[in-house]
Amino acid sequence: MSTAILTGQPVPGSSIEGDLRSLGFDVRLASDAGDTGTLLAAVPADQRVAVVDARFVGHVHALRLGLTDPRFPVAAVPGAVSVQPAARRALTLAMARETSAAGGVAIATENVADRIVTALDADGVDVHRPELGTLVAAVPADPQQRNEIRQAVSAVDDEAVRLRSAVKARDGFFTTHFISPYSRYIARWCARRGLTPNQVTTASLLTALIAAGCAATGTRAGFVAAGLLLLFSFVLDCVDGQIARYSLQYSTLGAWLDATFDRAKEYAYYAGLALGAARGGDDVWALALGAMVLQTCRHVVDFSFNEANHDATALGTLSLASPTAALSDKLDSVGWTVWLRRMIVLPIGERWAMIAVLTALTTPRITFYALLIGCAFAATYTTAGRVLRSLTRKAQRTDRAAKALADLTDSGPLAELLTRFTRGVASLGPAYVAFVAGALVVLGAALAPYGSWWPVLGAVIYVLLSPVALARPLKGALDWLVPPIYRAAEYGTVLVLAAKAEVNGALPAAFGLVAAVAYHHYDTVYRIRGNAGAPPHWLVRAIGGHEGRTLLVVVLAALLTAAQFKVALTALAVAVALLVLVESIRFWVSSGAPAVHDEGEPA
User: Fold this and answer.
1) Closest among 94, 114, 109 to 32, alpha carbons compared
2) Rounded-to-integer distance, Cα 12 and Cα 22, Å
3) In whole angstroms, what is the distance from residue 600 CA to residue 297 CA?
4) Rounded to 10 degrees, what is the CA torsion of 276, 281, 285, 287?
5) How far apart are CA 557 and CA 575, in angstroms?
6) Residue 319: pLDDT above 50?
């Protein structure tokens, strides 16, 4: 249980003690500054502790936001401050100074909580102050002001604000207008019955897997059931985040599960559709794999661009703004263009709705065609806009951004070994060199017959040029394109070679391999987002890096028969999956894992 120390003279009729207990705090009363310090020292070091002024007047949800959010070591609202164990020493030092300054005198008229916050600010401690909006939190100075604040509290529906804030601030059109109007009430129902976001996240995954199983039956009834279950899975996917925001039940494990399961659900459903189509005599595994490759590359474009630019600084007196960005901001000021722009990028809500409806009404092949066309258009639109912004914006990227991009390239031991020989090549521009190298290996695999050694030559050139991403910091205008180019080259090569093998089972094996490698790349992204750095170097080396895996797959295709190549792809997929999953799970359930909460644009 957390502990709240109530300072100052209690006010008759105040509900503050009951409010704090309703939030899970054990309330203790302090009579003076020295008593506050004594009570603080008596609280176990592994507990959250809050200091609250007894005269506090405000909404319970304002207290909840300021005192119970697990994401922030220190948080405060007027009249109240909360500290987690990680920042306990800072609170103790600040409290000791306040006790010394007060000299142990009565503190009935002193706002100790706000004085502590001021002291923490002076010490350079990062104090989170939640945006309260229409919520009220204040410490009145006299009875008249108390009455005025109480009237302000009565004028605002605390529960209505809490429900509204449970919905993500920026969401897609479909999610905002067809899911969130009722999913927030489901979230409240779940929260009041003790269901956790992680439980709902798991339920969403299981529902999506059942949907994939229904699609795999290949029957019209199965396809209809699959579409309905996929939509229900998406509703649950919205509910888990809304529970977290409604009751502030954030956790490291929950953030990782939410991020990971979204990709697992979607790609498992692709596999289910492909299996269902095969039962009907239609082989769409190449389309399923193509959809996964395209969607993953889209995400890598998003991640790379954001990592490259989120901490960019202006060059001299030049502004970070660009004509493209100015036009984008202008369009975002008009209602209908906001929703249009959010829809055409095909975020997860629109994408899953389209897949569900087409699954129920058409065939897997038509579903994949529509998905590929829609995602290709969305990818072209977003990437072109970001390229224009990068070329017109005058900004300097930081060392952190350059390192993040280098980690996202997933370069292995071969690239590291050859780095010393590529300094001249790097001056040509990493993005251009990566594009040429990637095009050579993919086109070589596509144009040569299966078993030819010509693709091996393309792969060798790809390997020789791959160190370009490591030769110098990736701070150029278009260097953020390097990771997605490498992803497209590696995934595309696997797809092309498996299709060229023309043996039953080769494409499903390739699907499994790309899924395992894509998981590793998503895992890398979320570690970087949490400022935990890339996966351990031994793991990247063990699975070969993008250049090592690409070369291996191409050599296997040249050496082995089509049937043997299928077995080799399967074995490689299992080996990569075991390595990355075991290490990833070990990391994300450890105490050092970061909490990553994606409140941005839906993907």
Assistant:
1) 109
2) 19
3) 18
4) -100
5) 18
6) no
Contact in structure between 439 and 488 (CB atoms under 8 Å): no
Collapsing DSSP to helix, strand or coil, 141 comes out as: coil
Question: What is the pLDDT averaged over residues 142-147?
Answer: 92
Token reading at 274: 């492909």
How do residues 586-599 score in pLDDT, each as one tens digit?
998 886 777 655 55
Neighbours of 473 (CB within 10 A): 16
**Could you give the CA distance from residue 48 to residue 127 in angstroms, rounded to a whole number?**
15
- Per DSSP, 480 falls in state G
Residues with Cβ within 8 Å of 374's Cβ and at least 6 positions away in sequence, in order, are 346, 351, 354
**H helices present in 280-418, as ranges:** 285-309, 323-331, 335-344, 348-361, 364-392, 399-409, 413-418
Q: CA dist 225 to 174, 206, 282, 365, Å?
A: 20, 14, 20, 18
Say whether pLDDT at 325 is over 70. no
pLDDT(229) > 80? yes
Q: In what order do the strands lie in the sheet with 74-77?
A: 25-30, 2-7, 49-53, 80-83, 74-77
Alpha carbon distance 510, 504 (integer Å): 12
Neighbour-count burial for 173-210, b at 16+ CB within 10 Å, e otherwise: bbbbebbbeebbebbbebbeeebbbbebbebbbebbbb
Torsion of CA 417, 420, 421, 427, to 10 degrees: 120
pLDDT in tens, 546-584: 999 999 999 999 999 999 999 999 999 999 999 999 999
Looking at residue 344, its pLDDT comes to 86
Residue pLDDT, tens place only, 376-428: 999 999 999 999 988 887 778 899 999 999 999 999 999 999 987 766 665 67
* Coil, helix or strand at residue 505: coil
Contact 228, 210 (CB under 8 A): no
Average pLDDT, the chain: 89
What confidence score (pLDDT) does residue 103 get?
A: 55
54 with 7: CB under 8 angstroms?
A: yes
Per DSSP, the residues of 522-537 read HHHHHHHHTT--SSPH
Sheet strands (E) in 59-204: 74-77, 80-83, 137-138
Q: In 78-158, at which residue ranges do the beta strands (DSSP E only) sit?
A: 80-83, 137-138
